[in-house]
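During the reporting period the student researcher (J.K.) took over the structure-prediction task from the postdoctoral fellow and processed the backlog of single-chain submissions. One of the processed entries is reproduced below for the supervisory committee.
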Amino acid sequence: MKIFSVIFLSLIILSGCSTTSSAPDIKSADRASITLIRERAEPLAWNVGFSMDEKEYVSLSNSSYSTFYVSPGEYKFGFDWPFLAAQIGLEGGLSISPNSENFFVLTSAYQTTGSSSTYNGILIHYNSTIRFEKISKEQATILMSKLDVK
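J.K. obtained the following C-alpha cells:
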C-alpha cells in the first residue's frame, strides 16, 4: 500500500508538468491565431486547461505558451485547474476577428491577509487574484523570450 501511495502521488505531481495542445495547428485564409501565455499563474505545480465553447484547446504548464488557430467569431472561454489545485476557474467572452493575431497572458498572485490560531496550528488567510488580458504582439514577443519553457 505504501508503494501504491508513492506511485500515485508521483503521477499526480508529474501530471502538472506537461503542456499539451489538442487544437489543430492549421493556418488557413480566414482563421485567426491565438497565443496564450501563462506567466507565473499560481498554483504553479498544476496545468491549467483553456477551453472555448466547452472544447479544450490547450493545457498550459507554468511559464509556457501555446499558439493555435480558430475560425473568427464570438466565443465563451474558460480556464480550469484540476480539483486538487484548489483554484477557482475563470470564464469570459472573446471576439476573434478574421486573419488576426491575438496574444493573451494569464497571471495570478496570492496575497496573505492574515493568520489565526486553531486547535491544530495556524490558519493562514489569503486572497487570490487571477488576470487574463490581451497584450500586443511586441509585449508577447518579449514575454515569450523570457519564459523557461517554450
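The committee noted the following: The mean pLDDT is 76.
J.K. will present the remaining backlog at the next meeting.
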